[in-house]
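Field log, afternoon session.

UNIT: design team B
ACTIVITY: writing a sequence onto a fixed backbone
BACKBONE:
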């Protein structure tokens, strides 16, 4: 899986970008997430995180189960659902 294959559709991250980062020594999924913004788009990683984990497992020789899911972060302060939906200006 390489080339112009889009892994994260929300942020247009390709398999090549992920593999290049892993090849440069970045093998922590949290760091990959921060550097490439995978899992930070509207889908919140539902599509790309499993794909990134499989690429990371293949490139590092680990089993996918050995790679922890990235941590989720909740908003720092409570946010009304209307604000998230775009219907409230507060």
């Amino acid at each position: 899986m390489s080339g112009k294959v889009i892994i994260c559709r929300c942020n247009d991250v390709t398999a090549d970008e992920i593999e290049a980062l892993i090849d440069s020594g970045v093998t922590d999924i949290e760091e990959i997430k921060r550097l490439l913004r995978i899992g930070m788009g509207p889908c919140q990683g539902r599509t790309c995180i499993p794909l990134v984990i499989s690429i990371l497992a293949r490139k590092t020789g680990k089993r996918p189960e050995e790679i922890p899911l990235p941590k989720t972060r909740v908003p720092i302060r409570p946010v009304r659902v209307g604000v998230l939906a775009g219907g409230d200006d507060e």
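LOG NOTE: Residues 6-85 form a domain with the Arc Repressor Mutant, subunit A fold (CATH 1.10.10.1100).
NEXT ACTIVITY: expression trials, pending approval
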